[in-house]
Write a structure and sequence with these properties.
The structure holds 3 protein chains of 3 kinds. By secondary structure, chain A is of the alpha+beta class. Helices cover 48% and strands 19% of the residues of chain A. Chain A has 2 domains: 7-50 and 278-405, no CATH class; 73-259, no CATH class. In chain A, the strands form 2 sheets. In chain A, strands 3-4-10-7-9-8 form a 6-stranded mixed beta barrel. In chain A, strands 2-11-1-12 form a 4-stranded antiparallel sheet. By secondary structure, chain B is of the alpha/beta class. Chain B has 7 helices and 10 strands. Chain B has helices spanning 44-51, 74-84, 100-111, 115-128, 144-157, 174-189, 201-204; strands at residues 2-12, 17-28, 33-37, 59-64, 67-68, 85-88, 162-166, 193-197, 209-214, 217-222. In chain B, strands 6-7-8-3-9-10 form a 6-stranded mixed sheet, with helices on both faces. In chain B, a hairpin with a 2-residue loop joins strand 9 (209-214) and strand 10. The longest helix of chain B is centred in the last third of the chain and has 16 residues, at 174-189. By secondary structure, chain C is α+β, with helices and mostly antiparallel strands. Chain C has helices spanning 2-15, 17-44, 82-91, 128-131, 158-165, 217-220, 239-245, 260-279, 294-300, 306-336, 338-346, 351-388, 400-426; strands at 56-60, 80-81, 96-108, 117-124, 136-139, 153-156, 174-177, 180-188, 211-214, 249-256, 290-293. In chain C, strand 7 and strand 8 (180-188) form a beta hairpin. Classes of the chains: A alpha+beta, B alpha/beta, C alpha+beta. Chains in contact: A-B, A-C. Chains A and B meet through helix 1, helix 9 and helix 10 of A and helix 1, helix 2 and helix 3 of B. Chain C: Keywords: ATP-binding, Cell membrane, Membrane, Nucleotide-binding, Transmembrane, Transmembrane helix. Chain C: One of its GO terms (molecular function) is transmembrane transporter activity.
Chain lengths: 408, 232, 437
C-alpha cells in the first residue's frame, strides 16, 4: 500500500479547531525556547567547569598557619614547617605559597613589555613560591629553568618591590609577546607595576589564576620568594590515595610543633574547585531539572489532549477503519497531526529562541547561541511530541471498526 | 457475490454466552438489491458487521466475491473493505471537521491513489448525488438528506462491487428517505450489489428480495412484492 | 449557590481523576518553580533597612587611572583610598558618617581552655552603630571621642561573646585581639541584614563581622587588608605608610543625610574636595563623584545575581507553559460535557451561572495546585540551599506575604487558565446537544 500523507485534510480539519492546536503549538514553542537556551547555558557552564587548573587537584591540599604573640618568629617557623612537611612520608612536595589557584582569592599585577604610564598592561596572577613550587604544583618547565634555592629572596609584609627573575605560563608568554615563540620569551624582560624590570627565566605549561571568572585565567607568574608573614599558606601535594590521611596528620603535627599559632582553613583542591564552581554546577542542575520537568509537562499535556481527541473522535476513527483504514494508518494520522502542530510550534519556537537569546545577550552578558542548537532542539521537540502521541495513537488504532455501525 | 453458510457468532462474557447469529446462511448474487429486516436484537447489526468485515465470526463460512475472509488479517480485511465494500450508515458518519470534498476523499486516501485520480472520482461521485456545487461545505451546513447523499458519494467514490447500507433512511424524513432510496436503486441498476439492513418493511418492499432475520437466524426469504409507488 | 458549584466541581474532578491530577500537578510545578525563584530574587532585592534607606548614602570619588575608567563605561571606583576616606571623615560635613574597612586578626581568649581563633574585623567609626541601627544585647558602641585617637575598645558579635565569655554580659571585660588587650564596650544581638548593604564589595549575603573596632586601628596596628584591594598604580615607597598614602582603594564610606538640602550640600562638598585635590596633582579624571542611597547602590552593585534573574524568567515561562497546558486540558474536558451544559441551559441556567460553575471547578484545581506548589516551593528552596551551600541560607525563607502570594498566584493562574474554556462552555446553545448526534 502506498502512503498517502493526509496533510491537506488534517490541516483543514485543524483549522476548524484552532485553539486546541494553537495551545499545543505555543507550549512546544516555549518549551523549545527554554530548552535550547538552557542547553546552551549548560554546555557553556560545563565547558567552564571542564577547564583544568594545571595543579594535581586530586592529590593536593592546603592550609593556613597564623602565628600570634610577640615571640612568634615567622621565618624560622616556616623553615621548620617546610622541612617537616617535605620529610613526611607520603608527601610528594610542599611549598609556601601566597594564593591557591582557582580558590577565589589571590594577588594580581599588570605586566608590560615596555615602560610608560600610558601603555596598557596585561594582567597576571602572582604566586610566590620557592624552588619546590614546580614539583608541589605539578608544573612542567617547558622552556628555561626552574628557580634555584639561591634565587629565593625574603619578602617582608609590606614590601612592594619584586625579585629580578620570574617564570610565567605559556599563555601569558604568548599574550605578552604575540610574535615570538614562547620558548624564546626566556631571557626577555617584562615590567611589573609600571616600570620594575623582571627577567623571564622559565616558561611553565599551565597554571590557572585564583579567579575562575577572570578573562586572564590562564595568566600566572611565579616569583622566587619566601614570605616573612605571620599568617601564611602551605600547599601540599601527596602520593595518590594519601591525601585524606595526611590532611589530618599534618594539621595535628603542625599545631603540636608550635603552639602559638592557629592552623586553619585546611582544605583540598577538589573541595575548592567544587566551591568555586558551585554557582555554575547549581545552575546546571537547576536548568536540567527545569528542562526535564518542562518536557514532562509538555509531553503529558500532549498525551492528555490527544487522549481526549481520541475519545472524542472514536466514532470517526471507527468510520475510518470501516472505510478501509488499517491500524498503522490510524496511528500515522495522529502522529502526522502532532507533527504538523509541532511544526507550527517549532517555527514560533525558533523565533522565540533567538529572541530570548538576544535578550540574554543584551541584559545578562550571555553569549550568542550557536546555530546548530536550533536544529538539535527541533529534533528533541519532535521526538518528544511523537513519543507523547504514540500511546494515545496506539489506543486509537484499537478502536473497533464495528463502532461505525453503532448508534449512540 | 456474498455467500454465508452456517455462520455463527457467539459473544462470551464470564457469565453468559450470547448467540448473536446461529447457523446463519445467506447468498447474494452479483447485481442483487437485498434487504435484511427483523426486530431489534434479531442479529441484523451483527450480520451487517460481519458482512462488512467489521467483525469476525465464530464459525461457519463467509465468502466475499469468491474470497474466504476467515483467514484474513486486519490489514487484508481493511484493504478488502476499502476496495470492495461501500458503507452507508444510519447516522451518516461524516467527519464533522472535514468539508464534503475531504469526506469523500477519506476512503480514496487509504487506497493510495494519485491526487488527480482522487480528484476525478470525488467530483464524479459528488456529481452523481447532486452535491458537486457544495464541495467546500461542512456536513453541519447540510440537511440530513444531503448528508446521507454525501455518505453515498463517499461509498461510491471507491467504485465498490458491493454496497452495505445500515438503515440508510433511519434518520431522515419520508421525503428525504424516498430520494435516498431512489439513489440507491439507481446505483443498483448500474450493477452494484446492495445489501440494506432496515427495520422498515415499507423500505424492504422496494428491494428485489427481503431476508427476515429473527433470533440470529434467517427465517423467511422471499422476493417482496414490487409496489407501484416505487420511485424510479 | 457556591456550595452547589463546589459540589459539582468535586464530582467533576473525581470523574476524571488522572486529568485533574495532571492539571494540579502542572499548576503545582509552575507555582513551585516561580515561587522558589521569586523568593530568592525577592530577598536578594529586598530593602534591608526600609525606614532609612533614603537617608543613607554611599560615597564614591573618581580617583582612578586617568587613562581608563574603573569600570566601563565611566563608573567611579567602588571604594575609597585611605587618604580620601580619612580626609572626608575629618571634614565631618554630614549628619553622621563612617568610613569602613575589613580585616582579620587572631583572638586569644583569656581562658586557656578556649583555643585562639581567627576573627573577621570591621573597622569603623562610632557613627556606624546608630546609622545602621545595630541591635545591642549588652552595652553600646564606643563614643566619638574614641574615634580619632583610637581607643582599645571593641564591639563583639553574639557568636564571639558566646564563644569567649559563655554568653555572659562581657561589657568592661578584656579581649586580646591581634596581640593587644581591648575593652569590650558592647555585644551585638543576632544581626542579620540581607543583603548586607553596608558592604557589598565582597559577598553581599555573608554574615556580619565578628569584631568591630575603631577605624584608625588600621594604622595603629598595621592591620592587613581584607576584601578587595585595587590599585591603578603601585604604592610609592615601602611599608605600611606607603600603602596608606597610595592610590589603592580598600575603604568604604557611608554618610547619613536626612534632607535633600544636606544631600546637595554634601555633593558640593565632595566636588570641592576633589577640585582641591586636583590642585595637588591627584584626581586627573573628569569630576565624577557619586552619592547613592541604599537601594540605588545595591542596584548599581548588581546584588541580585544574573543567574537568579535568568532563573526567574525561565520560571515565569515555565508557569506559562503550565497554564497553556491547563487551558488545553480544560478545553477538552469541558467540551466533553457540552450535553451537560446544554441540558442545564435548557432547564434555565443562565450563561453566568454556567461560567461560575466551571470557574469554580478550575479555582478548586488552582487552590489544590497552589497548596501542592507551596510544598514544592519549600522543596525547591531546600534544593537551592543544598546546591549553593550555607551562605545563601539567609536567602531562602518563606514569609507570610510570600505564602499568600503563592496561593494567590496559583488561583489566579488557574482562573486565567479556566476563563477561556468556561467562556466557551457558555456559548453552547441550550438544547443543541439534546438530540442524539
Amino acid at each position: 500500500m502506498t502512503h498517502n500523507w493526509e496533510t491537506g485534510p488534517i490541516l483543514r480539519a485543524m483549522s476548524r479547531n484552532k485553539v486546541g492546536a494553537l495551545l499545543i503549538a505555543l507550549q512546544i514553542a516555549i518549551t523549545m525556547t527554554i530548552i535550547i537556551n538552557a542547553i546552551f547555558i549548560i554546555v557553556e557552564r560545563s565547558a567552564l567547569m571542564g577547564r583544568e587548573s594545571g595543579v594535581d587537584e586530586a592529590n593536593t591540599f592546603y592550609l593556613t598557619s597564623t602565628g600570634f604573640g610577640s615571640a612568634f618568629n615567622a621565618s624560622s617557623v616556616i623553615d621548620e614547617d617546610l622541612r617537616r612537611l617535605r620529610g613526611t612520608p607520603g608527601v610528594v612536595d610542599a611549598v609556601q605559597i601566597n594564593a591557591i589557584p582557582i580558590s577565589g582569592g589571590g594577588w594580581s599585577m599588570s605586566l608590560k613589555t615596555e615602560t610608560g604610564a600610558d601603555i596598557d598592561g596585561i594582567g597576571t596572577a602572582n604566586y610566590f613560591v620557592d624552588e619546590h613550587g614546580v614539583d608541589a604544583l605539578d608544573l612542567q618547565v617547558i622552556a628555561g629553568e626552574n628557580f634555584t634555592a639561591s634565587d629565593v629572596r625574603l619578602r617582608g609584609r609590606n614590601q612592594s618591590d619584586w625579585p629580578p627573575v620570574a617564570m610565567i605560563t605559556r599563555a601569558l608568554a604568548e599574550n605578552l609577546f604575540p610574535d615570538t615563540n614562547y620558548a624564546d620569551v626566556v631571557g626577555k624582560t617584562v615590567y611589573i607595576g609600571n616600570d620594575e624590570p623582571v627577567t623571564v627565566t622559565g616558561i611553565i605549561d599551565k597554571l590557572q589564576a585564583p579567579w575562575i571568572g577572570w578573562d586572564r585565567l590562564e595568566h600566572a607568574m611565579l616569583t622566587p620568594e619566601k614570605m616573612d608573614f605571620s599568617s601564611t599558606r602551605y600547599l601540599i601535594r601527596t602520593e595518590p590515595g594519601q591525601r585524606d590521611r595526611l590532611m589530618a596528620e599534618v594539621e595535628t603535627a603542625l599545631a603540636d610543633a608550635y603552639p602559638n599559632r592557629i592552623i586553619r582553613d585546611v582544605d583540598t583542591l577538589t573541595a575548592t574547585r567544587e566551591r568555586s564552581y558551585r554557582r555554575h554546577s547549581a545552575m546546571i542542575t537547576i536548568l536540567t531539572a527545569v528542562m526535564v520537568l518542562l518536557c514532562t509537562i509538555t509531553a503529558l499535556g500532549i498525551v492528555g489532549l490527544t487522549s481526549f481527541n481520541v475519545s472524542r473522535r472514536r466514532k470517526q476513527i471507527g468510520t475510518r477503519r470501516a472505510l478501509g483504514a488499517t491500524k498503522p494508518a490510524i496511528i500515522r494520522y495522529f502522529m502526522l497531526e502532532n507533527l504538523m502542530i509541532c511544526t507550527l510550534g517549532i517555527v514560533l519556537g525558533s523565533a522565540l529562541t533567538v529572541g530570548l537569546n538576544m535578550a540574554l545577550v543584551q541584559w545578562f552578558n550571555q553569549t550568542a547561541l550557536d546555530w546548530f542548537y536550533i536544529p538539535a532542539g527541533i529534533g528533541v521537540l519532535i521526538l518528544i511530541g511523537q513519543l507523547a502521541v504514540l500511546g494515545p495513537a496506539l489506543r486509537a488504532a484499537q478502536t473497533p471498526p464495528a463502532l461505525a455501525t453503532r448508534t449512540v | 457475490m456474498l455467500s454465508m453458510t452456517n455462520l455463527s457468532k457467539v459473544f462470551r462474557t464470564e457469565l453468559v454466552e450470547t448467540h448473536a447469529l446461529r447457523d446463519f446462511s445467506l447468498h447474494v448474487d452479483e447485481g442483487e438489491f437485498v434487504s435484511v429486516t427483523g426486530p431489534s436484537g434479531s442479529g441484523k447489526t451483527t450480520f451487517l458487521n460481519i458482512a462488512g468485515l467489521l467483525e469476525t465470526y465464530t464459525s461457519g463460512d463467509y465468502t466475499l466475491d469468491g474470497q474466504n475472509v476467515f483467514t484474513l488479517n486486519d490489514r487484508q480485511r481493511s484493504r478488502l473493505r476499502n476496495e470492495k465494500i461501500g458503507f452507508i450508515f444510519q447516522s451518516f458518519n461524516l467527519i464533522p471537521d472535514l468539508n464534503l470534498y475531504d469526506n469523500v476523499d477519506v476512503p480514496l486516501r487509504y487506497r493510495g491513489m494519485t491526487a488527480g485520480d482522487r480528484h476525478q472520482r470525488i467530483c464524479d461521485s459528488l456529481e452523481q448525488v447532486g452535491l458537486a456545487n457544495r464541495m467546500k461545505h461542512l456536513p453541519a451546513q447540510l440537511s440530513g438528506g444531503q448528508q446521507q447523499r454525501v455518505a453515498i458519494a463517499r461509498a461510491l467514490a471507491g467504485d465498490p462491487r458491493f454496497l452495505l447500507a445500515d438503515e440508510p433512511t433511519g434518520n431522515l424524513d419520508s421525503q428525504m428517505a424516498a430520494s435516498v432510496m431512489g439513489l440507491l436503486q439507481d446505483i443498483n441498476q448500474q450493477g452494484t450489489t446492495i445489501v440494506m439492513v432496515t427495520h422498515d418493511p415499507e423500505l424492504a418492499r422496494q428491494t428485489q428480495r427481503n431476508v427476515y432475520v429473527k433470533d440470529g437466524r434467517v427465517c423467511d426469504e422471499a422476493a417482496p412484492v414490487q409496489l407501484a409507488t416505487v420511485n424510479e | 449557590m457556591f456550595a452547589y458549584y463546589l459540589r459539582l466541581a468535586t464530582k467533576s474532578i473525581r470523574r476524571n481523576p488522572y486529568l485533574s491530577l495532571l492539571m494540579m500537578l502542572a499548576i503545582a510545578l509552575g507555582i513551585g518553580a516561580c515561587m522558589t525563584t521569586i523568593t530568592v530574587n525577592y530577598i536578594m532585592s529586598s530593602n534591608p533597612i526600609p525606614h532609612k534607606s533614603d537617608d543613607l548614602y554611599y560615597v564614591q570619588l573618581d580617583s582612578w587611572d586617568p587613562y581608563s575608567p574603573f569600570r566601563e563605561p565611566n563608573e567611579p571606583p567602588d571604594q575609597l583610598t585611605w587618604r580620601d576616606a580619612t580626609n572626608l571623615m575629618e571634614a565631618k560635613r554630614a549628619h553622621r558618617q563612617t568610613a569602613m574597612a575589613t580585616s582579620g586578626a587572631v583572638v586569644e581568649p583569656a581562658d586557656q581552655d578556649i583555643n585562639p581563633f581567627m576573627a573577621s574585623l570591621r573597622l569603623n567609626f562610632s557613627d556606624f552603630f546608630p546609622m545602621f541601627d545595630t541591635p545591642f544585647l549588652y552595652g553600646s558602641g564606643w563614643g566619638s571621642e574614641d574615634d580619632n585617637d583610637p581607643a582599645y575598645v571593641v564591639v563583639i558579635s553574639k557568636d564571639v561573646n558566646d564563644r569567649v565569655f559563655g554568653g555572659e554580659n562581657s561589657v568592661g571585660r578584656t579581649l586580646t585581639v591581634a596581640g593587644k588587650p581591648f575593652r569590650v564596650v558592647g555585644v551585638l544581638d543576632t544581626w542579620i541584614v540581607v543583603p548586607r548593604f553596608y558592604d557589598v564589595t565582597t559577598n553581599a549575603f555573608q554574615d556580619t563581622a565578628d569584631i568591630f573596632m575603631p577605624f584608625y586601628m588600621k594604622r595603629e596596628l598595621e592591620l592587613p587588608n581584607s576584601g578587595n584591594t585595587n590599585c591603578w598604580k603601585s604604592p610609592e615607597g615601602e611599608g605600611f605608610t606607603a600603602f596608606l598614602q597610595s592610590e589603592c582603594i580598600n575603604f568604604q564610606m557611608w554618610v547619613e543625610l536626612p534632607s535633600d538640602g544636606e544631600r546637595a550640600a554634601y555633593l558640593d562638598f565632595m566636588n570641592s574636595y576633589v577640585e582641591q585635590q586636583k590642585a595637588l596633582g591627584r584626581f586627573e579624571r573628569p569630576l565624577n563623584n557619586r552619592l547613592s542611597d541604599v537601594m540605588t547602590w545595591l542596584e548599581n552593585q548588581q546584588v541580585v545575581a544574573d543567574d537568579a534573574q535568568i532563573m526567574l524568567w525561565v520560571a515565569l515561562l515555565f508557569l506559562l507553559v503550565c497554564i497553556l497546558n491547563t487551558i488545553g486540558l480544560l478545553l477538552s474536558k469541558f467540551s466533553q460535557r457540552s450535553s451537560d451544559v446544554a441540558l442545564r441551559r435548557a432547564i434555565g441556567a443562565s450563561r453566568s451561572a454556567i461560567f461560575a460553575q466551571y470557574l469554580t471547578e478550575t479555582a478548586l484545581i488552582g487552590v489544590a495546585g497552589g497548596i501542592a506548589g507551596l510544598g514544592l516551593t519549600l522543596l525547591g528552596l531546600e534544593g537551592i540551599k543544598l546546591l549553593y551551600g550555607d551562605f545563601v541560607s539567609n536567602l531562602v525563607a518563606l514569609d507570610i506575604p510570600l505564602v499568600i502570594a503563592a496561593i494567590l498566584l496559583s488561583v489566579l493562574a488557574s482562573m486565567l487558565a479556566g476563563c477561556y474554556p468556561a467562556w466557551r462552555a457558555t456559548l453552547i446553545a441550550p438544547a443543541s446537544q439534546l438530540k442524539t448526534q
